[in-house]
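Possible regression after last week's pipeline update?

I re-ran a chain I had predicted before the update to compare outputs. Posting the input and the new output here so someone can diff against the archived version. Not blocking, just want to make sure nothing changed silently.
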Amino acid sequence: MTLVLRNARLADGRLVDLAMAAGTITAVTPSTGGAAAIDDDPGSAAEVEDLGGLLVLPAAVEPHAHLDKALTAELAPNPTGDLLGAIDAWNRADDAGLLDHDGTVARAT
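New output (post-update):
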């Protein structure tokens, strides 16, 4: 099913219509203030929501870094490339005495 967000305001002030399918924006067209900028085929299964000029922003993200783990790929290799592999690799390196306070400070700096 397609979702059309009509009259959405972008950060630069433009009013647009956004067409979405499966959670992905598939079209951005200038809004015509209520008239269909994105085709409203009566036979389509599109759901239309008029945002009335509400601001639309990208999804929030929470970027962060674990400075104590920065630059440790050689000390604690993670062959699986996933979180559990990273935890296991970190624990193995710690148990082997490869991780210490001075090294952590140096890497974080």
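Follow-up from reviewer: compared with the archived run. The longest strand covers residues 2-9. Marking as no regression found.
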